[in-house]
Design goal:
Elements: H1 2-28, H2 34-45, H3 52-62, H4 69-80, H5 95-130, H6 135-149, H7 152-166, H8 185-223, H9 226-233, H10 238-257, H11 261-267, H12 270-276, H13 281-290, H14 294-322
Amino acid sequence: MWKFLVRRILLGIMIVVLGAFVTYAVIRCLPASYLEKMARQLAAGSQGRIRWQDMLKILNEQYGMDGSIISGYIKWFGEAIQGNFGDSWKYMKPVTQVFSEVIWWSVLMNIITLFVEILVSIPLGILAARKQYRAPDYIVTVFALACISLPSFYIGTVFKYVFAVKLEVLPLYGLWGRDYNMLGTWGKIGDIAVHLIMPVAVLAILSIGSLMRYTRTNMLEVLNADYIRTARAKGLPEKVVINKHAFRNTMIPLVTAFSGLLPSFFGGAMITEQIFQIPGIGLKSFEAMQQGDIPFAMFYVTFIMVLTQVSLILSDIMYAVVDPRVRVN
């Protein structure tokens, strides 16, 4: 097992290093950059005393963008492994400070979404499998396909139009209202909770469909196994057969489905946070990437890649925890 973990960790490090290089190269090759925009603004403010091309050259030298892509990446990587990710060009703060200020809003929203997703999708998936080709199965299947097919920006827009514009029962956007600072502790918690209802609902709808279908498919496979028929023939109650015998083996494929939870917790929901203006890491990353903020973009992408590799390694370990028969050859 230890040899397997060492190999997986080394492979993960190699993937992160190569992935970060590809990201850096793509950002450097973009036709426009934040420094170019800044150079044009500074040149326009100089009343024609300096050309923007000359100002861009000065800024490239100042920010270390005057070298080649390879030399620039090596310089960035050397600083990154020491924990120095530089200052964000857009936010004028250290990248890690901007990250720490907004990350926990995304984590809170995704944790709530996970609980909603599990409480809804797994029971409905089991119900659909038990009632195969009957009304509950068809209803769950249609609902799951609708959740999978509809994009987040469409669902978010419909929710805002119905609940915020027409019914006026939920706030349109943001994480707190205008009277937030005047409220007490429980009032502030309630205000944030109300503002999170629509974003959490959108994220839950996006993830419920696939997990529901995944649970149904694997539960059907398990319910047709010989040991399930044996358990029923022995006279065990149906709840015991489903919860103790069938669902435990259904969890093995579900471990794979949950392997992406860790990066999703800390990666934010870029589109949903933008629609509802939730000040999480997804919105901040979107704004930074729009402006060509290389330090922030590199930190964000590298952080997500590291979390992805850690999550995959943990899922491999969880296989052995869920099913003792699973061992590394």
